Amino acid sequence: MKYENIIVRTDGNIVIVNLNRPKSLNALNAALIAELSDAFDRLIGDPGIRAVVMTGEQNFAAGADITDMVEFTPEEARAFTFSATFNKIAACPKPVIAAIEGFALGGGMELALCCDFRIASPGAKMGFPEINLGIFPGAGGTQRLPRLIGISKAKRMIFTGALLKGEAALACGLVDALSDNPSTEAMALAAELALKPPVALRLAKQCVNLSDETDLNVGLEFEASNWARLFATEDQKEGMRAFTEKRKAQFTGK
């Protein structure tokens, strides 16, 4: 697929996915979402990729393109939802880091919530203004936001449509860190994670993600099973031998 709405580049074993519709503040439309889906299919299947940084040209993403949505029927609205692609990103076996500058609104904020970490500039504006359009977040916002910041805070954001800037977003847990250069900070974190054992990272991510979806006993059994599986990997042997030999481990993803 030829990409016209995103730019994908590789820096060593890190992929940078850059949303690239600056004239519309990177508003999400069907074409951009299709390209995102294709890009993640490719990087998920590439064993040489260890981490992903997602960012946007000038802004992260100012929600869905409203001009496409005004006259939707309910059936058309359901078909337009980005949930399938967003779920794919949330389940990506590689760590995904959002670098947020400018606006991250509505669907754009939902996209950021699919990432494992969010690093924002102090002046970034983030939130869910959909209520002012007669709708509410429909691509995971009502589900992922409460799990991240708590039900009461999530209700306040969604019910009022209020936007948060950097410090307020950091204080409530919407973002993990603030930086004057979020992309540089995100690349530094991606580089750190790229040195970790990929299989252990993938299974750890699955276990943590499951904690939001199941009861404790099911989660504990899933954790124990996957923890044990790691003892069949070369990376586990390498990591423990390197520790006992007082040297730096070299993980291969096997």
Q: What is the percent of helical residues?
A: 40-55%
Structural class: alpha/beta
> What is the CATH homology-level superfamily of the largest domain?
2-enoyl-CoA Hydratase, Chain A, domain 1
**Largest sheet entry:** 6 strands, mixed
First-to-last CA distance: 30 Å
Q: From the coordinates shown, what is the CATH architecture of the largest domain?
A: Alpha-Beta Complex
Total number of beta strands: 10
Q: Can you tell me the CATH topology of the largest domain?
A: 2-enoyl-CoA Hydratase, Chain A, domain 1
Note the beta-strand portion. Answer: 15-25%
Shape: globular
Overall mean confidence score, pLDDT: 94
When the domains are counted, the total is 2
Q: Count of helices?
A: 11
**Series of H and E elements:** EEHEEHHEEHEEHHEHEHHHH
State the name of the first-level CATH class of the largest domain. Answer: Alpha Beta
Q: Stretches where pLDDT falls below 50 for ≥5 residues?
A: none
Compute the CA-based radius of gyration.
Answer: 19 Å
